[in-house]
Structures are given as structure tokens and as C-alpha cells.
Specification:
This protein is of the alpha/beta class and about 80 residues long. The chain has one domain. The chain is about 45% helix and about 15% strand. The protein is built from 4 helices and 3 strands. A 3-stranded parallel β-sheet has the order 1-2-3. β1, α1 and β2 form a beta-alpha-beta unit. The chain is globular, with a radius of gyration of 12 Å. The protein starts with a strand and ends in an 8-residue tail after the last helix.
């Protein structure tokens, strides 16, 4: 799971992780930034983009819903 994935360092970290073949949950505020990941990361990348502002109180519930829907879990490292 990478937050800030729509631009800057977050996007670069996501690009590097995608190159390593890591499945990604990409979270970013910019509607078009996190959803246009395939153009930047390549067709083989497995990513689940979520346009979301983490300052909103319901953001954790939305992330949890996405993870549950896709039967995903996140390692903390």
C-alpha cells in the first residue's frame, strides 16, 4: 500500500515497486493521478488505485472495504 501515489515520491516509490512485480494498492488524492497508473507502470503491473483524501474520517473504512473486496492484505515494513 502506497499513499501519495498520484505524484512525487509516492508515485516514484509505486513505480519502483511495480517494476519489482509487487502488487500495489495506490492511494492518492488526485483523481487522475492514481487511476492513470497503467500508463506509467506498464500493463503487467498489478495495482488497485483508490482516489482518497486520508484526512477524511471515513478514509480508513474505504481502504478496508477495498482490501476486503479484493481479498488483499498489507504487510507493514
Amino acid at each position: 500500500m502506497i499513499t501519495g501515489a498520484s505524484s512525487g515520491l509516492g508515485r516514484e516509490i509505486a513505480r519502483l515497486a511495480a517494476a519489482d512485480g509487487q502488487p500495489l494498492v495506490l492511494i492518492g488524492r488526485a483523481q487522475d493521478g492514481s487511476t492513470n497508473w497503467r500508463a506509467s507502470f506498464g500493463a503487467r503491473a498489478v495495482a488497485f488505485p483508490l482516489s482518497l483524501d486520508l484526512q477524511r474520517p471515513d478514509s480508513v473504512a474505504e481502504i478496508d472495504a477495498l482490501l476486503s473486496e479484493r481479498n488483499l492484505f498489507c504487510d507493514v515494513w
